């Protein structure tokens, strides 16, 4: 995979993660919530 493609995908993943965190509905234990890391991963994947 070309470096530029990897970089674009990384940027999209970071934006998706930020959107989920800002949404506030999914919070893992370390963020003061009750959701699992799998719940967080599924929410991020849904944003992609």
Distance between the termini: 19 Å
Overall SS class: mainly alpha
- Topology pattern, helix = H, strand = E: HH
Low-confidence stretches: none
- Overall pLDDT metric: 95
Number of strand segments: 0
Give the strand content.
under 5%
Name the overall outline.
Answer: elongated
The biggest sheet amounts to: none
Rg measurement, Å: 12 Å
Whole-number count of domains: 1
Number of helices: 2
Report helical residue fraction: 55-70%
Q: If you had to describe this structure to a student in words, what would you say it looks like?
A:
The protein has 48 residues and is an all-alpha fold. The protein has one domain (3-47). The protein is built from two helices and no strands. The protein has helices at residues 3-23, 37-47. The longest helix has 21 residues, at 3-23. The radius of gyration is 12 Å and the shape is elongated. It starts with a helix and ends with a helix.
Attribute tags:
48 residues, mainly alpha, 2 helices, elongated
Write the layout of secondary structure elements.
Elements lengths: L2 H21 L13 H11 L1
Helix pairs in contact: 1-2
In short:
This protein has helices at residues 3-23, 37-47. The protein is mostly helical and 48 residues long.
């Amino acid at each position: 995979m070309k470096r530029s493609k990897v970089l674009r995908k990384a940027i999209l993943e970071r934006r998706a993660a930020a959107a989920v965190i800002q949404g506030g509905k999914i919070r893992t234990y370390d963020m003061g919530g009750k959701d699992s890391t799998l719940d967080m991963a599924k929410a991020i994947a849904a944003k992609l």
